[in-house]
Amino acid sequence: MEYKIAVLKGDGIGPEIVDQAIKVLEAVGRKFQHDFVFTEALTGASAIDQVGDPYPEETHQLCMDSDAVLFGSIGDPKYDNDPKASVRPEQGLLAMRKKLGLYANIRPVSTFPSLIHKSPLRKDLVEGADFVVVRELTGGIYFGERGRSEDLNKAFDTMMYNREEVERILKLAFDYAAKRNKRLTVVDKANVLASSRLWREIAQEMGPAYPDIELDYMFVDNAAMQIIQWPKKFDVMVTGNMFGDILSDEASVITGSLGLLPSASMGIHTSVFEPIHGSYPQAAGKNIANPLATVLSAAMLLELGLDLKDEAEAIRLVVSRSMDEGMVTADIAVDQKAYKTSEVGDWLADKL
Ligand code: IPM
Ligand code: MG
To answer: Which residues have CB under 8 Å from 270's CB, separation 6+?
Structure first.
């Protein structure tokens, strides 16, 4: 069968890591007889440089017309250090989320035995941790009304949610928990924020429709603490846009496998699959970046985007084999030879 995949490589190491995921997907296509048709489009700082817009209309049209989007990373230090820049690469990301209706960001957090020693936490605390952060991605304070007073001495952002936005993300989270260990934690700040109280109210209304799911609630500050203290207690965690931004970074780093964690953004139109890590500009063009998070994002693309479960599993298997056999980049190589980004991609494609 033919699948159309939009490829947005973006900035920094984006192009080189996405190239490896494409190699692996092509190998999957050969093995399982699928025809993946890849079409590239501009995004991020490279799109600003070339056409003045970090998410050009042409890119959006390609995404809309595709079965899934494979995304690299965006961001460039020249914008980070210029708070007055009128267009920023991140605006492209936010525009893409909004226009594709990607209201759910799914970030699985799991540990890999060979990387546990890289965790900042004690091995016994983190070994076996396996949970998912479901973050609301197109509402809340990221998209609320904002402004600046005339004298520029005051500025505000608004955290607002409506029922429809909360219901659809909670539904997705309940369904996700149903497919896993059937525990769902709603993370909010309902002791202070009105918008959080709306989340709780709606979760309490929806709970009885999911009798198999053990539902609990946690304030975000407490959740930040418990992720560090007892990461193994979580299964699926669902939360708003900004809390999810913060908690998912915290969660991703405790496993010691930041370079390995994939993510999916799903919603109304085409879903987008991308690594959790950033554009790592210092490594760009050096052929040293770890491609595994992007390769594992391609596995999520197959499973969640195209409903190809065996194909996704084949990628996960070959990725763990590459780690067992030491076919890895410098960031995760221990006392062993480090391989180049492209060598890891070639090996994965070959062994699949
Ligand atoms: C993320 C990133 C983005 C966010 C930035 C780059 C706008 O941190 O995807 O988590 O805050 O959503
Ligand atoms: Mg973030």
So the answer is: 6, 63, 64, 66, 67, 68, 69, 100
